[in-house]
Design goal:
heterodimer; A: mainly alpha; 2 strands; globular; B: three-stranded antiparallel β-sheet; 20 helices
């Protein structure tokens, strides 16, 4: 299996399909959708096969490795490979792919400007870049995928979005490009350092990770990398593109954008920032943790005040990304693993929220919360979906987010007790924004607004069921996930100098031990 | 007995084989002039265009014959250097000129004929002009003029002493002044552009000439090697040397369109016939940067601590002013002109590195930029309002829906200018930034990175217009390009993609070529 270029196929197949789909003639819209769905299912099959043959405790950092020289003069190669973290995130992205395609089945049908063929071609191209960005073990290839990824999203928002789609698309692109170009400058700086340190310049992660870099240079390069990923994640105060993008994009696009794409940033913090700039990461950790906590609380507070469902979901994500980053910069294994699990959980819950909200908005023609009311009476199944999605987002025990949030808090409490304490406020607020939204949309007497609203159709049930199943599976039995992620997290944090924090357990005081037993 | 005033005269040697590419181009141009004089009007245009394209092809073949790994000779008694950079840049000029010439051929998009006025001498709107238009006359002098200009460019990048350097500059520029004024449509704008270009160009030539004289006064030598030698023996801060360096730089900054010597660029790019704009934007830029690299890396190679600060300032100004002014433009040709100013700033980032990496990255960027530029201007020719090009940006709204291929290809070129990966523009930016960081010019790279994002805004704005806006009710017509233009656009698009996806071979070529001889 290991000689079989499974990652290349996984990444290139959607691109090939995108080209085919884009050039399908008028009248073949259905074929375009079918091709997209079949390709996403094939990708899912490949990923499952990959996951089965993955060995979590292998000695080498990456598996399914492929490496071909690309631009030899600069030590750039087409190098792919996955560790546990990348595998889990690719699996999440690929599992959401068929769901998203089904959910967006009719998104482009009534768009008089652009064809469904274009829509599905862009979605497929986006999937391809997602695979590459998670699988790249060469930093240059990572950067290429990181930037190219913007192009399909930009067109998805601008061509197929609604409302202020142009503004949102341009804002998204410029924010991302700005961060990306600073990343490029830092990447070039890193390359020049590698020339000095290693003799020959390289972009190979395996050579760059742990490379000695003097402290000041590390801080500068760290700043370039971190800024790009903070914009992408997004963290307060560079988050303002996200609500606009999410409010304007189709739910399918938002799901991929918020649920999957933004994970690239948190993934890159684990994969690139900590192993390559360990000293600077420790140096900046208090600052990062502060921003993360601000994101958690601010995102949640602003979410409560939103009247647009899509914007609300976007702000909840700002809050949740704060948790993920808090977990990463706790530098504890449980916090790190927890943040990866939270990334998966957040992907699932965001997908559920955006897609179900999308079903509602499509029926009503508006995404404003006040334009609903009493949906439960007319469309009980749909309202039930909405409630479940919301519960998953507020981290109901038994659902995936709970596992992530709990482990992140345990992990971060060990190093940053105050920050973890404040972050708990975010959990309380999350039940507020979810339940208030649900109450206004679905509960109460049936209003004029929702009269005659159709309940969920079979396609929508098929969309929701797998997300729910995965959410429950991760929530009830997260062990396989932790088993895959833990070794990779251990390797990531092995680059750091910080001593692992043991939960403080005074030997004499037996009563205190109970608190530390959750892990 | 009379004293002998001169030593015995030895005739200079001419290495004809090394000079062949240039001699072929000049020869082709002279034959073109003869054809103007003697060929009947009927077949003249066909003969000229065949001769023009053939000359470039033969010159390119001759250039390939010159190429060898250990290249590095002087020719024509030391006045011309045929080394790696010279051959690389001459090759780039020939290819880019060939692509622009393909646009000169186009006569399908304008109902009246090609992009040039039947006679530049007639008064715009006069009866004489109408008569000539009705007779279907075309101004075939453009071909020999353009060939002379190409020959001048090839000599410019190879010039190895101050006199050849100046002569080459004039041979390159004078035909361009004429070509700029020959547009078929909006002739007054075109003539105004030509006059501006001529006046400011002469002014900058004067600067360059005066600077050359000072360099000669300092070093007592006109050859670049001689100037270099005198620098290594002389004291560093001689006023003659400083002022001479500055004035030569001003002349060259003018030619590449760097701020604050850029004010001619938008007017000339807008007024010139679009094929000529493409030719100028791509090939002239290669030639001017090639000459800049040679004089600053060869003649003033050990003097970099004195000229680099000036380059820092000009680079930052060029990137910042070019990017910001481009945002305010509403005419696509003017926007592309300001974009070319900003791009000149990015290229200067590579020049400022003052290293072999700076040389090779600059050469790569020039080639990459040339392809995308010619392609973009070729597409500008196709969107037309009635008889003339619809250059106002609002006219481009909704093009993505009406003509997906044109909009798609233009988007590719714009994304390349913006430096999005998998296009040549990204690799070019990566290379010049790398060279600059390596050469200790990190702040330039940070400014470059920030303003790349600013620049991306106006490139993206065109894409927004084409794809996200509705077309106007009286949408402009999309002309069907002839086979020559189609070929040029296809080659440019393929080049832009290929240099972005598999840049390795060309990077290798540029790096192998990156060795000046002194």
């Amino acid at each position: 299996m290991n000689d079989f270029p499974v990652l290349s196929i996984l990444g290139l197949l959607p691109f090939a399909a995108a080209v085919v789909v884009a050039f399908l003639p008028h009248g073949r819209e259905l074929l375009a959708k079918q091709i997209a769905l079949v390709v996403s299912l094939v990708m899912l099959g490949l990923t499952v096969a990959m996951a089965i043959s993955f060995e979590p405790n292998a000695a080498e950092p990456f598996q399914f490795v492929e490496k071909t020289p690309w631009i030899e003069k600069f030590g750039i190669s087409y190098a792919l490979g996955v560790d546990g973290i990348a595998l889990v995130l690719i699996a999440m992205a690929v599992s959401l792919a068929p769901v998203v395609i089904l959910a967006g089945w009719n998104d482009a049908d009534d768009n008089e400007r652009h064809r469904p063929q274009t829509y599905f071609a862009l979605l497929l191209a986006l999937l391809g870049t997602i695979v590459f960005v998670f699988a790249a073990t060469d930093l240059f290839l990572f950067y290429v995928a990181f930037e190219v990824m913007l192009v399909p999203v930009y067109f998805l928002i601008g061509m197929f979005g609604r409302g202020q789609r142009t503004y949102a698309a341009v804002k998204f692109l410029l924010y991302s490009l700005f961060g990306g170009l600073l990343l490029l400058a830092a990447l070039i700086g890193l390359y020049v350092v590698s020339v000095q340190e290693l003799g020959t310049g390289t972009f190979d992660w395996t050579l760059l990770a742990g490379m000695p870099i003097d402290a000041d240079t590390q801080k500068i390069l760290f700043a370039g990398f971190f800024f790009a990923f903070a914009v992408k994640a997004p963290m307060v105060p560079v988050h303002t593109w996200l609500p606009d993008a999410a409010a304007s994009a189709t739910p399918a696009t938002s799901t991929l954008l918020v649920g999957v794409l933004d994970k690239v940033a948190t993934f890159a913090m684990l994969r690139l920032v900590i192993p390559i700039f360990p000293d600077a990461s420790e140096w900046a950790a208090p600052f990062v943790v502060t921003l993360a906590v601000i994101s958690i609380v601010y995102g949640a507070l602003v979410a409560i005040g939103q009247t647009d469902m899509y914007r609300l979901i976007a702000y909840t994500s700002v809050s949740h990304f704060g948790f993920i980053i808090l977990g990463i910069f706790a530098f504890t294994e449980i916090g790190g693993s927890g943040s990866v699990v939270y990334m998966v959980a957040h992907g699932l819950s965001t997908a559920a929220l955006f897609l179900v909200a999308g079903f509602l908005v499509r029926r009503r023609g508006s995404s404003l919360i006040p334009s609903f009311g009493g949906v439960q009476r007319v469309a009980p199944l749909l309202a039930g979906f909405f409630l479940l999605a919301g519960l998953s987002s507020l981290a109901m025990p038994g659902l995936a987010s709970f596992v992530g949030e709990l482990t992140v808090l345990i992990g971060s409490y060990q190093r940053w007790p105050v920050a973890a304490g404040i972050a708990v406020i975010g959990i309380v607020l999350s039940s507020l924004y979810v339940l208030i939204m649900y109450q206004r949309v679905a509960q109460g007497p049936e209003t004029e607004n929702v009269k005659g609203m159709r309940d969920a159709v079979p396609r929508e049930v098929v969309v929701f069921a797998p997300i729910l199943a995965l959410t429950l599976a991760v929530g009830i039995f997260p062990k396989p996930l932790f088993d895959v992620v833990n070794p990779a997290i251990e390797r990531t944090f092995s680059f750091l100098q910080v001593a692992p924090v043991e939960p403080e357990v005074p030997a004499t005081d037996g009563a205190m031990t109970e608190g530390g037993e959750n892990s | 007995m009379m004293p002998r005033l001169v030593d015995e005269f030895t005739s200079p040697t001419f290495e004809y084989q090394l000079l062949a590419p240039m001699l072929i181009v000049f020869g082709g141009a002279i034959v073109g002039v003869l054809i103007e004089a003697f060929a009947p009007r009927g077949p003249r245009r066909r003969i000229q265009l065949a001769l023009g394209l053939l000359t470039l092809v033969v010159a390119f073949v001759a250039l390939l014959a010159v190429t060898r790994p250990d290249l590095g000779d002087v020719a024509a008694a030391g006045t011309v250097a045929i080394d790696g950079p010279a051959v690389f840049l001459q090759g780039a000029i020939l290819i880019l000129a060939f692509l622009s010439f393909l646009l000169f051929v186009e006569r399908g998009v304008d109902s009246a004929g090609d992009a040039f006025t039947p006679s530049g001498a007639t008064i715009p709107g006069s009866a004489a002009e109408r008569e000539l238009v009705a007779a279907g006359v075309s101004q075939t002098e453009v071909w020999p003029l353009a060939l002379f200009s190409v020959g001048g460019m090839m000599l410019f990048v190879a010039a190895n002493d101050l006199l050849t350097f100046f002569v080459a500059l004039e041979v390159m520029s004078l035909p361009l002044y004429l070509l700029v004024g020959l547009a078929r449509r909006r002739r007054l704008l075109s003539q105004e552009a030509a006059l501006k270009y001529f006046l400011l160009g002469s002014f900058s030539s004067a600067f360059l000439l005066f600077g050359s004289a000072m360099l000669f006064g300092y070093s007592g030598s006109i050859s670049f090697a001689g100037i270099y030698d005198s620098l290594s023996s002389g004291v560093g801060l001689d006023p003659l040397l400083l002022i001479g360096t500055g004035m030569v730089a001003i002349g060259l900054f003018f030619k590449v369109g760097a701020v604050p010597f850029h004010s001619w660029v938008p007017d000339v790019y807008q007024g010139a016939p679009t094929p000529v704009t493409a030719f100028m934007a791509a090939a002239t830029k290669v030639a001017a940067f090639g000459a800049m690299l040679r004089i600053f890396y060869v003649a003033l190679g050990d003097y970099e601590w004195n000229w680099r600060p000036m380059f820092w300032v000009v680079t930052i100004l060029t990137i910042v002013v070019g990017s910001i002014l481009a945002i305010t433009q509403t005419d696509i040709k003017r926007m592309l002109a300001y974009s070319s100013v900003a791009q000149a700033g990015f290229i200067l980032t590579g020049v400022t590195a003052a290293s072999d990496a700076g040389l090779s990255s600059t050469m790569f960027y020039l080639a990459a930029y040339g392809f995308a530029t010619i392609g973009a201007f070729a597409l500008v020719m196709l969107v037309r309002d009635g008889t003339s090009e619809a250059t106002h940006l609002s006219r481009w709204a909704g093009l993505g829906r009406r003509s997906p291929i044109i909009a798609g290809v233009l988007s590719l070129f714009l994304l390349s200018f913006a430096g999005i990966p998998l296009t040549s523009g990204f690799i070019g930016k990566f290379l010049v930034f790398e060279a600059a960081v390596d050469g200790g010019a990190t702040p330039l790279v940070i400014v470059g990175a920030i303003f790349s994002a600013v620049a991306a805004f106006f490139y993206v704005r065109v894409i927004v217009l084409m794809y996200f806006s509705d077309p106007p009710d009286d949408a402009p017509a999309i002309a069907l390009p002839g086979s020559a233009t189609t070929l040029a656009v296809a080659v440019c698009a393929a080049g832009t993609l290929a240099l972005g996806v598999v840049p390795g071979p060309v990077i290798d070529l540029a790096q192998e070529a990156a060795a000046f001889i002194r």
